[in-house]
Design a protein that fits this description.
Layout: E1 4-7, E2 14-20, E3 25-30, E4 35-39, E5 46-50, E6 55-60, E7 66-70, E8 73-77, E9 84-89, E10 99-106, E11 112-118, E12 126-131, E13 137-144, E14 147-152, E15 158-163, E16 168-174, E17 181-189, E18 196-202, E19 208-213, E20 217-221, E21 228-233, E22 239-245, E23 251-256, H1 263-268, E24 275-278
Antiparallel strand pairs: 1-24, 2-3, 3-4, 4-5, 6-7, 7-8, 8-9, 10-11, 11-12, 12-13, 14-15, 15-16, 16-17, 18-19, 19-20, 20-21, 22-23, 23-24
The chain binds calcium ion.
């Protein structure tokens, strides 16, 4: 598969690609800079909203605008006015001062899930939260070290989830009606040589596409057998997340990062921090879920 650079807007920590199927635009963020990038991949029209806040993840709202996990709060963002409104803080108090939100995504019922992590790498300091459409917050998992990829099976019965530190993908029985998850089990184990599993997406066949931090690749896995199906090489080592987009949801958008790379590594991978696209993968993504009823 052919990988192309779509935007060289260099991100310190590019993340969370989200396809807007109404406007046919791709969003992605820079967690550390607090930027929300938006690009029309056909016309190349590009915009950037700089919030100046550490932003773990975003998703689109059904009634317009953005839902986001910023610092340690769920919030809404109006892209046009750049107004941020905090909806629900999580992890209040000084005990959580070193935590921040990380990856997040909407589920098939329109809830927004996002998890936290310690900025100092403390083991088990984070949790996975779910912001329901009535704006109540449920804690879904505790003892999380680096909350990352989320994906729901095409039949909406399984949640797949990555805590990067565990080097695996866990599956949970997922209840669409109330968002409850249970019966967690490991379905994919990832050896060190592949990189650290980071963000992920799922295709219409129910196969997972996992971005490998430090692994210079996206790898497609079968979560039923745990087996690797194919690898897509990227010209950068810190591959952070991926999502399907485009008119037929067959283009794979991939984000990357520069943070922590030495000047020698940066010289070797001048495209680090870029947004990439693998056009016409031959595989199709699942519907993009948005926040709200
Ligand atoms: Ca991530």
């Amino acid at each position: 598969m052919n990988c192309e650079v779509l935007s060289e807007a260099s991100c310190l920590l590019g993340e969370c690609p989200v396809w807007d199927h109404h406007a046919k635009k791709i969003y992605w963020i820079d967690i550390f800079k607090g930027d929300i990038h938006r690009l029309d991949p056909v016309s190349k029209q590009y915009e950037r909203l700089s919030t100046g806040k550490v932003m773990g993840s975003i998703a689109l709202r059904k009634n317009g605008g953005i839902i986001a996990a910023i610092e340690r709060s769920f919030a809404t963002i109006d892209y046009a006015t750049s107004e941020i409104q905090v909806i629900a803080p999580v992890e209040p108090g000084p005990a959580f001062n070193n935590n921040r939100f990380n990856d997040g995504k909407c589920d098939p019922a329109g809830r927004f899930w996002a998890g936290t992590m310690s900025t100092e790498g403390a083991s088990g300091a984070g949790s996975l939260y779910c912001l329901d459409t009535d704006l109540s917050v449920q804690t879904r998992l505790r003892n999380i070290t680096c909350s990352n990829g989320l994906a729901w099976s095409p039949d909406h019965n399984i949640l797949y989830y990555i805590d990067t530190a565990r080097r695996n993908v866990a599956a949970f029985n997922y209840n669409l009606v109330d968002g409850a998850i249970k019966n967690g089990r490991i379905v994919i184990s990832i050896p060190e040589v592949m990189g650290y599993p980071d963000g992920m997406t799922i295709d219409a066949e129910g196969m997972l596409w996992i971005a490998m931090w430090g692994g210079s690749q996206v790898v497609r896995y079968n979560p039923h057998s745990g087996k690797e199906l194919c690898r897509i090489a990227l010209p950068v080592s810190l591959v952070t997340s991926c999502t399907f987009g485009g008119d037929s949801l067959e283009d794979l958008y991939v984000t990357s990062a520069t943070t922590g790379l030495s000047s020698a590594a940066l010289a070797e991978q001048p495209l680090a921090g870029s947004l990439f696209v693998i056009p016409s993968t031959g595989y199709k993504g699942t519907s993009v879920f948005e926040f709200g009823r």
